Amino acid sequence: MDPEREEGETHHLPIPTSPETHRRSICSNCRRPNSVCLCHALPAKPIPTTTRILILHHPQEAKHKLSTTPILTKSLLNATSITGRRLRRGKSPLLDHSPPAIYLFPSTTSSPAINISDFKLSELKRNGDDGLVLIAFDATWKHAKEMVKASEGYLSKFAVRVCLGMEDERVSGGSIYDSELILRKEPFGGCVSTMEAVARALRVLEPNGIEIEASLIGILKEMVRLQAGFLKPMNPRPKLLKMKKLKEVEECESSENEKL
């Protein structure tokens, strides 16, 4: 018997991968490399929610090592994901009977979104006792826009588009907390990872939303902390940096004109 193993402690066996079997192994539970295993941060039991969460996972994003969807579905009892590029009838049994639903995506001029803080479930059409479904899209910004555009014809029949109300295209994007080690640069300020977006939404939608949000953000921060040890600092994108400088110049000129 292993003297270091405490009674009741669960040890997940590494799964060898090919062609790097001798160099890298994957945890059988969280499906992440053992060097950045997140099992210690995951809840002992998946967190129950009255809201059902469905994530449309872009095929390319599903292969990305920093995708937060697998961790999210491990953490929430009622969260599921499907891989694809658009939602349509027959893609998800959960949506086929048109339940009351909302889908998360920033507002645009052509497709406005309701701030989730102003959303009222009573405004949605309900079929029987169906609970609310929260839909999120996990992809790069470019792919996510394409996925939403391709899915809106179907979703508009029963779902409402909502946003977190914190997006700003004029401000350069960042990470979930201030750090020079940004794992994945977002296109503009307020854009967040899929897991963080769902956490912020559940804070508003669930009776114990504050606790759920804190749990999910804690897991996400631990994921970032572990991964940061293997990455080099990421410089801001030149285009976004230029936009930020132009904004600063405009604000400076406006301030000087007010003084005159």
Automatic annotation (TrEMBL):
Entry keyword annotation includes tRNA processing: yes
Pfam families: DTW
Catalysed reactions listed for this entry: a uridine in tRNA + S-adenosyl-L-methionine = a 3-[(3S)-3-amino-3-carboxypropyl]uridine in tRNA + S-methyl-5'-thioadenosine + H(+)
GO BP, sorted A to Z: tRNA processing
Keywords, sorted A to Z: S-adenosyl-L-methionine, Transferase, tRNA processing
An example Gene Ontology molecular-function term: tRNA-uridine aminocarboxypropyltransferase activity
InterPro entries: DTW, DTWD2/TAPT
Highest rank taxon of the organism: Eukaryota
EC number: 2.5.1.25
EC primary class: transferase
Domain DTW: 23-232
Annotated stretches, region: Disordered: 1-24
PANTHER family the record matches: TRNA-URIDINE AMINOCARBOXYPROPYLTRANSFERASE 2 (PTHR21392:SF0)
Similarity comment text for this entry: Belongs to the TDD superfamily. DTWD2 family.
Protein name, UniProt field: tRNA-uridine aminocarboxypropyltransferase
